[in-house]
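Q: My labmate handed me this sequence with no annotations at all. I'd like to see what the chain might look like in three dimensions before we decide whether it's worth expressing. Could you predict it?
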Amino acid sequence: MFYFSFFPFFSFAVVSVANGQDNQLNVPETVYLLAHEFEYGSTDGDTDEQPVVRVQLDSFYISRFETTVAQYAQFVEDTDRSLPAENSIEQPNFPIVNVTIEDARNYARWLSRQTGEKWRLPTEYEWEMAAGLGVHKAYVNDVEPTELCTYANIADESAVEDMPNITSCSDGSQGVAEVGSYAPNNASIYDLHGNVWEWTSNCYRETNGGYKPFSCDAYTVRGGSFMTPAIHVRVTNREQLEKNNRLAQVGFRLVKER
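A: Here is what I predict for the chain of 258 residues:
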């Protein structure tokens, strides 16, 4: 049996940013997942999802939503950076996109300094645990692919006409959507399928498991985007992305250590 617990945190914490302005720090809302052992990977997916391995994880907090433009904007303002292209402060609740893995790490380091807590990108183990909740199923809450549009912004019947391999459902969106626009998984974590791909801290390897984060040229992204059909947004699906790439369909969420 899988046990999980979650504790909501208000996104706007009463913390002033370091530049001395009166803005309240927009801290990611988190979900707390208890320590658990689970099967990581799949024998039904691509070869890089194999072999299936048993993983024991300690308890951790993970962001309930993908990191937003509003949250990232506080970081770029405080550190004299620029908001990446394809993002608008007029859309504060959209996920931040066009960020490299180092951009995401720099935001996590900055947030750690502001809060006095340890924030970082999730490992692949943590990301898959949060998405599947330790249950060996392809999609959140064990739904069928044609039911995914309730939970995910993916390549579906709402997509542009020339998009291949669309899923037979309609999520009502042709591009990136506000975070939390679709139903969450059973731990109240949103957008684990679709919307934007999410950076993880793990270097990409062609075999599954048995490794730790370290420096490399390509890292693993998880979850798929609004341009991804159901078959490639499975909980266990893995894709690689070069570390300096900026794409309008790639963002991130964070983990907070206990």
